[in-house]
Specification:
Helix content is 28%, strand content 25%.
């Protein structure tokens, strides 16, 4: 691993209140959500001049609607090609949470007390038992709980004949995470331009900056971390197949008689966060509509009640929706563009945006530093979707 070059951060921080903006930066990160903020913070730690371009507001960004689960193992079997990446990302949060608490005073509410994936019938149980057996064979910590063990732990469950128990998985609060990452990035000198990225500027095969609605910013490196809006950016060497998939969620009060937990089923989950039970979630191909619908909320509540009938009388406190950036194969796009030097992708994380956000920032920074890409991210490069000529 190469030693990172250090830069003297003698520049002015941009703000949205009219503070003058430097004309040139070392790195521009398009997107200020969990992934973009993580990239900006990690890159700023090297001393580089970093600008985050983020339109702001609540347009249905994925991180605002995320449950915050760090669920690296609940669906994993031999078909999961990025399990190692997911587990590394989950484990990275122990260090990141401590660092952010020390530098910003913000607690991201990290807790890793396990996630149960419940089997509703015998066919489901057989599938989950196969996942447990495979994970154990690979050396991962994973257990199968039979029906009596499952009910002893979660007496409030509805239909359940057993559960996959991933004791090292957990959750965090996505809003606190983004707040802390942005605060620490600013502490390290990163600027934030409240602007909407329109196009990638380039010259002689290299990215040279970003053209936005209000202004233009120059940089030798550009990181595309715009989530579901990444594919709308003009000037990319290739179309990137990232599309929005709406996820609706709801929250009710967490019953006092229930110990906090995270319980997942193939079409629903219940997650304890503070005094609330977070209920999710839908997966809807509706374009860029981030609205909440009665049908969506009803489907969430219906699925949740099968998990926990005790929530029958719970009143919905709030509901919301976000747009997950999803690729055709369900894997993120992380790494360089092979046809445009200085252009990097950190997008398409789908349902794993929060899980992978922290480590994605570290990986992108290492790549910009010239480190050899680790084997565990080789399968998530943009080139897997074809060359620029083939897709253009």
């Amino acid at each position: 691993m190469r030693v990172r070059q250090q830069y003297a951060p003698t520049f002015q921080i941009v703000s949205s209140d009219g503070t003058p903006v430097p004309s040139s930066w070392d790195v521009i990160v398009i997107g200020g959500g969990a992934v973009g903020a993580s990239c900006a913070r990690e890159i700023a730690m090297t001393g580089r001049r970093v600008l985050i371009v983020e339109p702001g507001g609540d347009a249905g960004q994925a991180w605002r609607a995320a449950g915050g689960m760090l669920a690296s193992q609940i669906e994993a079997d031999a078909t999961n090609s990025i399990l190692e990446l997911a587990i590394s990302a989950r484990n990275y949060y122990a260090l990141l949470a401590q660092a952010l608490r020390e530098t910003t005073g913000i607690d991201i509410a990290l807790w890793q007390e396990g996630i149960a994936r419940v089997a509703g019938d015998e066919a489901d149980a057989q599938g989950l038992q196969a996942k447990v057996a495979w994970q154990q064979k690979q050396g991962y910590t994973c257990e199968w709980l039979d029906e009596s063990e499952t009910r002893a732990r979660w007496r409030w469950l509805g239909s359940a004949v057993g559960a996959l128990w991933a004791s090292q998985d957990g959750a965090l609060d996505p809003l606190r995470l983004v707040e802390a990452l942005l605060a620490d990035a600013r502490r390290l000198g990163a600027g934030v331009a409240t602007d909407r990225a329109i196009r990638i500027e380039q010259n002689e095969g290299r990215a040279t900056g970003v053209g936005c609605e209000a202004d233009q910013y120059s940089a030798g490196n550009v990181v595309v971390a715009a989530g579901a809006w990444s594919s709308q950016i003009q000037g990319l060497p290739r179309p990137i197949p990232v599309k929005p998939v709406r996820g609706q969620m709801a929250a009710v009060g967490w019953p006092e008689e229930m110990d906090r937990a995270i319980v997942y089923h193939r079409d629903s989950y219940i997650l304890a966060r503070g005094s609330e039970a977070i209920l999710g979630s839908t997966m809807e191909d509706v374009g860029y509509r981030a609205d909440v619908t009665p049908e969506g909320v009803a489907s969430i509540v219906s699925a949740t009640l099968r998990l926990c009938p005790g929530l029958m009388r719970a009143k919905i406190r709030r509901s919301w929706a976000g747009l997950r950036p999803v690729t055709p194969d369900g894997l993120p796009i992380i790494g360089p563009d092979p046809d445009l030097r200085g252009l990097w992708y950190a997008t398409g994380h789908g349902r794993n945006g929060i899980l992978l956000a922290g480590l994605t920032g570290r990986l992108i920074t290492g790549l910009i530093d010239g480190e050899d890409p680790p084997g565990l991210i080789r399968q998530v490069g943009v080139e897997r979707f074809g060359s620029a000529a083939e897709t253009g």
